[in-house]
User: What shape does this take?
Amino acid sequence: DSGVTQTPKHLITATGQRVTLRCSPRSGDLSVYWYQQSLDQGLQFLIQYYNGEERAKGNILERFSAQQFPDLHSELNLSSLELGDSALYFCASSVQEGNTIYFGEGSWLTVV
Amino acid sequence: EDQVTQSPEALRLQEGESSSLNCSYTVSGLRGLFWYRQDPGKGPEFLFTLYSAGEEKEKERLKATLTKKESFLHITAPKPEDSATYLCAVLLGSARQLTFGSGTQLTVLP
Assistant: This one.
């Protein structure tokens, strides 16, 4: 158990809908990262927050947004969902930026 | 251009047959190289961090080494439970996040 908690574990939703994925980082970790992993692709970096502030953006679509709250948990919002958004979404956390990151078990999103 | 390349893409070994996985990176300014193990449908599990050329780390049957342009993950006398995808990631330059390779899918046959 890495200490990073993600909910929900599984989610099935229809095209055009909006979902929110939630992440609680390890105790003491200030930095949160979101990654997407599709069946035929590796881990794609989406976005990173540090102590509530957005710090880096990767290949995140405009339909996706995220935030980190004062209690350091983070949410990833996915809207106007398309079939191609079906993937495993991972949250990871680290004490500081550039340190080892620890992953949660992921949220399986299936868009039908 | 890929910054991190892992080879081979897939590797099948007999139980007890030692081998090595490779991770090479093309951009200078390495601040850290990380190895993870990922089981199907699970989150990547941290294995090692290496920071400088010549550094080595070991854990059970796994040993990670780092040179100036690549890292190796040596697997000694593997067992079927070592079957997984092994991911390499690098922290380069001024980046704040890791860049992952596409992984090596290891299968160890009994």
